[in-house]
């Protein structure tokens, strides 16, 4: 079988480049509007309006609870109608939610709550849409392409948080109007540059000149909740990646709060702004290639081995915050920043990769909608978990609990070692055997 090189097909290459650019923006905004902006919004509302942690984040917690069902609803709509018909209006309404946060001006709590809720729930189709488009368009190159587009998450850590901090410092909540405008541009790019599947424009996945060898005639059949609940592979995915999602939600939402709690009078205005943000930019920049590296490992060696590497990289983010001293530590902050980049870039890369690995390209979303729905149940309580420990003055304990959870996820992934790749015949290691 002749080796498929993606960019040999110029038509496919054009769509591919467009998707990688827009997909990177999906992950940039997803990371920023799901978790990261809370690191700026929380201290701003605390210092200017006296709001406490739970008052600020309760709309996000409620939104996270709603996403438990929304993963199923959005996944089902994607399967039935395609990605673009659902994703476009979602981006537009999310932009309106950002405008609502700005108009609330820290005074109208009802408007603030509704708007923040809208933003939280509508980042779900942004992430799921990018994942499904990647699964539709790529098999052999799936890991590496996802590695490119999910670099948008650590890119948010490198430049996005600093940009948000500067905008909120300069414009207050009106900074969210600027974000709304950027989302409008993203909606336009989605409308004109993205297609749901390669088959829609007369192409095949990876730019090949033939249909995938690994897809049987019955591929793409509906997967029921009963099938998921009785499938050991599904539970292995739910437990392992459910833990990773809980950890990343907890970590990203409270990293600024953690550093602020460790500030000394010499840290002006606080430890996060005076020291940690610098290391976040440096460390995250060095970690951005890890999104691609994990994708490369996935393409070359398979999703299970790449998932084990990802689990280990999470430790680089969690351990430093667990043992960080008052006033900070340069070495620990550098390690933490690198770990954050690996975590934020690696998880979005590997979640669709490992689900596609287990269930195949055409069954990816049919299975993923159930898996992500179940995973969203514990993830919905990540903010509350951190908030409770923070208000008790026991935030350090929370980080040690996260480390125990990561040990459980590592062992769970190990139990998946012998699961075969559903699309092995079209993957690079499968082609080498043919």
From TrEMBL:
<feature type="transmembrane region" description="Helical">
    <location>
        <begin position="398"/>
        <end position="419"/>
    </location>
</feature>
<dbReference type="InterPro" id="IPR036259">
    <property type="entry name" value="MFS_trans_sf"/>
</dbReference>
<feature type="transmembrane region" description="Helical">
    <location>
        <begin position="86"/>
        <end position="103"/>
    </location>
</feature>
<dbReference type="InterPro" id="IPR020846">
    <property type="entry name" value="MFS_dom"/>
</dbReference>
<dbReference type="Pfam" id="PF07690">
    <property type="entry name" value="MFS_1"/>
</dbReference>
<feature type="transmembrane region" description="Helical">
    <location>
        <begin position="60"/>
        <end position="79"/>
    </location>
</feature>
<protein>
    <submittedName>
        <fullName>MFS transporter</fullName>
    </submittedName>
</protein>
<feature type="transmembrane region" description="Helical">
    <location>
        <begin position="276"/>
        <end position="296"/>
    </location>
</feature>
<feature type="transmembrane region" description="Helical">
    <location>
        <begin position="333"/>
        <end position="358"/>
    </location>
</feature>
<feature type="transmembrane region" description="Helical">
    <location>
        <begin position="171"/>
        <end position="194"/>
    </location>
</feature>
<dbReference type="InterPro" id="IPR011701">
    <property type="entry name" value="MFS"/>
</dbReference>
<keyword id="KW-0812">Transmembrane</keyword>
<keyword id="KW-0813">Transport</keyword>
<dbReference type="GO" id="GO:0005886">
    <property type="term" value="C:plasma membrane"/>
</dbReference>
<feature type="transmembrane region" description="Helical">
    <location>
        <begin position="308"/>
        <end position="327"/>
    </location>
</feature>
<keyword id="KW-1133">Transmembrane helix</keyword>
<feature type="transmembrane region" description="Helical">
    <location>
        <begin position="234"/>
        <end position="256"/>
    </location>
</feature>
<feature type="domain" description="Major facilitator superfamily (MFS) profile">
    <location>
        <begin position="16"/>
        <end position="424"/>
    </location>
</feature>
<feature type="transmembrane region" description="Helical">
    <location>
        <begin position="12"/>
        <end position="29"/>
    </location>
</feature>
<feature type="transmembrane region" description="Helical">
    <location>
        <begin position="370"/>
        <end position="392"/>
    </location>
</feature>
<dbReference type="GO" id="GO:0022857">
    <property type="term" value="F:transmembrane transporter activity"/>
</dbReference>
<keyword id="KW-0472">Membrane</keyword>
<feature type="transmembrane region" description="Helical">
    <location>
        <begin position="109"/>
        <end position="133"/>
    </location>
</feature>
<feature type="transmembrane region" description="Helical">
    <location>
        <begin position="145"/>
        <end position="165"/>
    </location>
</feature>
């Amino acid at each position: 079988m002749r080796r498929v090189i993606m960019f040999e097909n110029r038509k496919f290459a054009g769509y591919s480049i467009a998707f990688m650019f827009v997909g990177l923006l999906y992950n940039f905004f997803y990371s920023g509007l799901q978790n990261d902006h809370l690191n700026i919004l929380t201290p701003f509302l605390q210092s200017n309006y006296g709001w406490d942690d739970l008052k600020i984040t309760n709309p996000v917690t409620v939104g996270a609870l709603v996403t438990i069902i929304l993963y199923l609803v959005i996944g089902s709509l994607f399967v039935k109608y395609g990605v673009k018909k659902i994703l476009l209006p979602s981006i537009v309404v999310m932009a309106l939610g950002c405008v609502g946060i700005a108009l609330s001006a820290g005074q109208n709590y009802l408007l603030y709550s509704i708007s923040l809720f809208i933003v939280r729930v509508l980042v779900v189709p942004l992430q799921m849409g990018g994942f499904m488009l990647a699964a539709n368009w790529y098999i052999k190159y799936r890991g590496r392409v996802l590695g490119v587009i999910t670099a948008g998450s650590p890119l948010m850590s490198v430049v996005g948080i600093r940009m948000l901090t500067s905008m909120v410092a300069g414009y207050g909540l009106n900074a969210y109007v600027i974000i709304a405008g950027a989302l409008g541009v993203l909606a336009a790019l989605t409308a004109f540059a993205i297609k749901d599947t390669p088959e829609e424009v007369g192409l095949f996945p990876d730019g090949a000149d033939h249909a995938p060898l690994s897809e049987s005639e019955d591929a793409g059949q509906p997967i029921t909740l009963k099938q998921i609940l009785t499938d050991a592979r599904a539970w292995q995915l739910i437990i392992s990646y459910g833990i990773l999602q809980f950890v990343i939600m907890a970590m990203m939402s409270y990293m600024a709060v953690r550093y602020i709690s460790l500030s000394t009078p010499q840290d002006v205005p606080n430890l996060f702004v005076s020291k940690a943000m610098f290391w976040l930019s440096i460390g995250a920049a060095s970690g951005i290639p890890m999104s691609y590296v994990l994708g490369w490992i996935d393409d070359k060696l398979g999703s299970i081995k790449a998932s084990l590497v990802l689990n280990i990289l999470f430790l680089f983010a969690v351990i430093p915050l667990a043992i960080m001293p008052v006033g900070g530590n340069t070495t620990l902050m550098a390690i933490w920043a690198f770990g954050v980049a690996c975590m934020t870039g690696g998880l979005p890369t590997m979640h669709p990769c490992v689900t596609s690995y287990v269930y195949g390209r055409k069954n990816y979303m049919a299975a993923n909608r159930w898996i992500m729905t179940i995973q969203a149940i514990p993830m919905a309580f990540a903010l509350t978990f951190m908030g409770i420990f923070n208000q008790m003055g026991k935030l350090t304990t929370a980080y040690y609990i996260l480390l125990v959870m990561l040990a459980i996820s590592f062992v769970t992934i190990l139990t998946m070692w012998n699961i075969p790749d559903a699309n092995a015949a079209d993957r690079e290691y499968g082609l080498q055997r043919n």
